[in-house]
Each structure stands twice: as C-alpha cells, then as structure tokens.
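Posting for a labmate who doesn't have an account.
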Amino acid sequence: MHLSDRAYTQLKRLILSRPIGADEALSERGLATQLSMSRVPVREAIKTLESEGILIVLPRRGIHVRRLTIEQVCELYEIREALEGMAARLCAERGSHEAMRACRRKLERLAQARPIDHPAIQRSSAAFHRMLFQLCGNAQLRDMYRAIEPQIALNLRLTALHAHDRIEQAVHEHIAVAKAIEAGDARRAELLTRRHMQNGKRARIRILRAKTRERATEGLA
C-alpha cells in the first residue's frame, strides 16, 4: 500500500473510531505524530477526507470533524432507503449467494457472542451493506452507493460512540434481511431493508437531539 493510501486509511479509522467533538480542532502536525508518519502523506489524506465531506479545514481555526445536521441525516437515510431497498430486492430476485450465507452466519456468531464486540459487529454490518451492492448485479446502483459511503461512515460514527443498543438491534435486522434474500423473497427483503433504514434514522435523530440539548446545557453553565 502506498504511503499516502496508508495515511488515508489510518487517519479515517482514527477519526471515525474516537470521540472527537466537532468543536475540537485537530492539527496536521498532531495527526502526523499520532500516526507516526511525516506530514506530507497526512496532508494528502486530510485533503481527501475534506473532499469526501468527513473533515472541514478552516483557515486559522484548524481541522474539524464535520457535524451532520438532523436535516442532512434525514436526507442521507432517504437516499439509503431507496438504494438499499432496491439492492436487497435485486439480490433476492437473482438467487441465493454463498457469500450472503457466509456473511449472515458471521453476523449470527457476533450477535450471540458474549461479551458483545460492538466494533466487530459494526465492521461486519458495514460489509453486509456493501455486499448488497456487490451481489445485486447493477453496477450503476453500486456506484451511487459508493458516492455516499463517506457520509455513511461519518453517520455510523454517531452510533459507535453513543448508541451500542442500536448496534445490537441492527445486527438482527441485517440477519433478517439476509434470510429473506436467501429465501428469494424479494418483497420481504426490500421491506425489511427499508424498515432497517427507518429504524436507523430514528436512532441517529435521537442522538443528535440529545447532543444538541447537551451543548445547550453546557452553554448555560
């Protein structure tokens, strides 16, 4: 892997996995130190993440993780509901896939494991969503999903940091969708996927509203 690609991968993982507030300023030098890299590849990674909408670079104010608004989250889920519902339907119509069965079995193992490994569930759940588009047989649909993946990753960061119960609920929803696809039930696969998106939207809105109340309370303190 090229050094700039490695810097991008590691920086993105760092940003999405740690509780960095939108008001917390990051620096190119500090990030390079954390990643044990020179500033040049880190600078390129920052530019890429800025173009993807994950980071915001403000002159003289530093680098900030983008804060999604409730409106933006709602819009993202409206898009996802349409795209992923269609992908799930197409997967079911085109027959069962061994890759889907293997993914579902892995999700079941993670759901049953104790203690619950929330990061592992989120990684496998993200892989499940990507698999829908890999197996649906529609390249243009897959490209449309890839275009919004950075925003999806930023949105999922909210759940990783603030809603472990949603992670546990979502994995069972993924399993149900996978079973519908394996059974060739296109209508149910799409319905369950759309319902999964609606549940996800409600969970993120609750998080954002709670964070807004927290900031308001801190401002009054």
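Reply:
Got it, the structure tokens are right above this. The chain has two domains: 3-65, 70-217.
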